[in-house]
Amino acid sequence: MKKSMSNSINVTDDPFLIIKKIVLLFGLDIQYNIRRLRTWNSKLRMFYEKCVALLWFCFIVKSIVTFFSYDIDSGESVTAKVSRKLNDIIAFSVWAMLVMKRKNIFRLFKDIHALGIDLNVRLTSPILYVGLVTILAIPLFEWLFKTLPMQNDDCKILVKYYSVNIMSTQNCKPWYFIALFETFFSYTVRTFYAVTYIILCWALRRILNSHSSGKSDMVRNLSLSYDPHRFEHYLVKNESIIQVLKYFEKTMSFPIFLIEIGDLFEMFLGLTWLNFRRKVTKDIWLLRYSIGTCFSAVRALVFFLCVSLAAASVHEGSEKCKDAQGIILKNALYSKPKVNTRDIIHLLILHQTPTFKLSASGFFYFTKGLVLSAIGSVLTYSLLIIQQVDDYKS
């Protein structure tokens, strides 16, 4: 089913083409099998991919070295140390999984596109261009918030830290380049993956809604009268959607789990920092550097909400499909002489299975209830940590 579905796609009409092109920025080509091509274009892509991979390894090695050289013995809180390095580890892990799963993600794009064509669902939307702007804008704003508030003395400290005491400077120009390197590798891939996840959830929700809507000719006709051919076709489409949903869950769940954990930790860090900033003088460099930390916390909150609600909308679409199945099943049972028992049993099994829920690698499931409980947990633990720190200092 997958092969026939994927091979029927016209690439020129691909609604996800813009997403497949932007990922080239990270040195990943999920659109073409570059190992089979011998053109200069493919060779240049392979060379660029290797260069980006080398920079990624430099990034994670630098993160490990700075942790053992400076962070372990620094006076910062454990929360600040862990959060900074956790973001680096998550970013590197997501990039590594993108490399390993590039073929799976390409196949997922094609299969969702195929479902859209089969169900006559238009998947082109301004949301794709909003996603593209978001992928590029978030790292840019992170970079601006980490550079614009800085003074020359602040830049000396930061350049010394991030260069592992190799570089020294009298102004902020070197810090601008180092901060650009840091924000590109820390946030671009994470943002790309989260935006892609949201877009694919949006596409799957539209497909599920179309498959269950009364506006669909198939659902409307089956709700009025039993037709064995339409009934069998409905079951085949239903199986196709379930297979794509399961493949989406298998491919995307663990990276999105890491990203969500990183977002929750950044929210936690931002809340604890709001308490800490009241106790520092206004002229220390850490206060100016923390403007970027506060922006990261707000970004994390927005992305956590968007990812969670987008994934929860797939669950709602699955519930609508189950309601439509109930109506079709009831009508089929009223038409006993025409009914194929095998098809009825098939639909009955589908109707009795639990509604599909996307998960973060099985650790938690995305429903609307998760949003409030997760944010409430972050607030609770943040206040608890703040209270314990205040009691310890007093």
From TrEMBL:
Stretches of the chain forming a coiled coil according to its record: none
Bilayer disposition of the protein: Multi-pass membrane protein
Location within or outside the cell: Cell membrane
Keyword terms: Cell membrane, Membrane, Transmembrane, Transmembrane helix
A Gene Ontology term for the protein's cellular component: plasma membrane
Keyword Cell membrane: yes
Stretches that traverse the bilayer: 51-70, 121-141, 184-204, 286-310, 363-386
Entry's Gene Ontology BP terms: sensory perception of taste
Stated name of the protein: Gustatory receptor
Organism: Nephila pilipes
